[in-house]
Amino acid sequence: MKGANVLEKIFNFIKKLLKKIDEDDTLPYAYQLTYSLLLSIFPFLIFLFTLIAYLNLDSGYILNFLKNNLASDIYNMISNIVIDLVDNQRGSLMSVSIVTAIYSASLGFRAFMKGTNKAMDTGESRNILARYALSIMWVLVLASVILIALLGIVFGNQILILIKEVFPNLMLDNILNAIRIILPVALIFFMFIAFYMFVPVRSVKFKYALPGSIFSSAAILVLTVGFQVYVDNFANYSKLYGALGTLVALMLWLLLISMIMLLGASINSLLIEERKIKDPYIGIAKKVKSKIQEFTE
Questions:
Q1: What is the mean pLDDT of residues 147-162?
Q2: Which of 108, 133, 154, 258 meets the CB 3.0–4.6 Å disulfide criterion with 36?
Q3: What are phi and psi of 281, to 5 degrees?
Q4: Based on C-alpha coordinates, what's the Rg of the chain?
Q5: Is residue 136 domain-resident?
Q6: Quick one: DSSP state of residue 120?
Q7: Picking from 46-55, 106-115, 233-242, which range would have the lowest pLDDT averaged per residue?
Q8: The Cα angle at residue 197 between residues 109 and 281, in degrees rounded to 5
Q9: Residue 288, domain member (yes or no)
């Protein structure tokens, strides 16, 4: 009987969530976010990997990381680009790509900001300069997180190799494999926490941003594995559509990621509403944002 009540509550919550998704125009915002991500992904990758080239990192580590986290069609499309960018330093390319990448990626983040505010039932009160500044800031944060993850994987491997030479009896292979799994998961989780807390107009307290962050992090991981298996075994887009197949797979992958990102915000908002939380917002953050807006006006 108790199990039936739990299932009924879950069913009612999903029903309300679907209604909220429809009322908040989540899917149109997801399409807009997908389009912006598609425009920004290649300039962003050029900027990121050109920057990595100046750190003299081995492209093999980066390719291995991408191969383990992308469907084969998408990996095959960008692997040659990554090798060329990481193994060759191009200052002029970096100066051009950094402007293009930041501007294009900021378009996607402004779409995410709009969708998140709609999901949280808060109107956009920030002026255009504040929105542009915040979207660029979040793009730089995202680039830093990706760079830290890659550095952690590369240098973490080198550190463990040195330790293994000193302590050959330690089972470091298991530790390295655990780090490779835990580090990306942790970074994704804390990135979503930051998104759902500080991207909306009114910043949300940690505990109320937590449910959506857990959902989105888990959903991204399941999507990564599931989409790899699906594309590699059941839907080889390259065979179906030729050269355009990889682009089709990339667009579908970005659309699913966009939907997950916005769905996490909707889950947080609905749980706040269901629990009748009167004040889920951070007061001090609101004052700081007000000062920023005054400064940009």
A1: 62
A2: 108
A3: -105, 160
A4: 21
A5: yes
A6: T
A7: 233-242
A8: 130
A9: yes
